[in-house]
Amino acid sequence: QVQLQESGPGLVRPSETLSLTCSVSGGSVSSGGYYWSWLRQPPGKGLEWIAHIYSNGNTNYNPSLKSRVTISVDTSKNQFSLKLISVTAADTALYYCARLFLGYSSSYFDFWGQGTLVSVSS
Amino acid sequence: DIVLTQSPGTLSLSPGERATLSCRSSQSVSSSYLAWYQQKVGQAPRLLIYGASSRATGIPDRFSGSGSGTDFTLTISRLEPEDFAVYYCQQYGSSPPITFGQGTRLEIK
Question: Which of A65, A106, B92, B101 is an S-S bond match for B33, by CB 3.0 to 4.6 Å?
């Protein structure tokens, strides 16, 4: 059973950088066919996909956040990370990491972390 | 951009009843790339349906998905108490590559 665990600061100051790491156990970030993703959910609102990355470093970003986001993967640590620069209160959300299966005939998020709440406030 | 619109926003039903949740897309979506998730309070989303109609591992057969093109449906044949939650549809495809509907809240009547 694949497990994902987010970690990082729960409070970030406005204009600073949000940095989160997702540790993967029970599976490998190098597994073929899977992409490693970040999503977020503002309090009381719906889900927003942020970005995903393949083990070879190929990335895909939500155009609405692309200018501020960097996703990276560390296969030696079986982790992947998110950086979001110049944060504002609008970036306050529950941040999830998840595994994305992307095949020729289907695509879905099958394993999720429990989520970590990041608040942007001075 | 592909926009997924879910209806109704809130559905009030009793255990044992049938629930029908709709997900409509602003553009045609490949059925292969339409998924449904259930999210309970304080929990991460759980995959229910992928490929529009295939149940994920461990999902009871009272959950079924159907549809194609721009109209997709999640049906729960007989509601159990644990089914009351928020449901999201999600597509993979055009820019942005991944979008979710705004969710349907299924509440106990």
Answer: B92
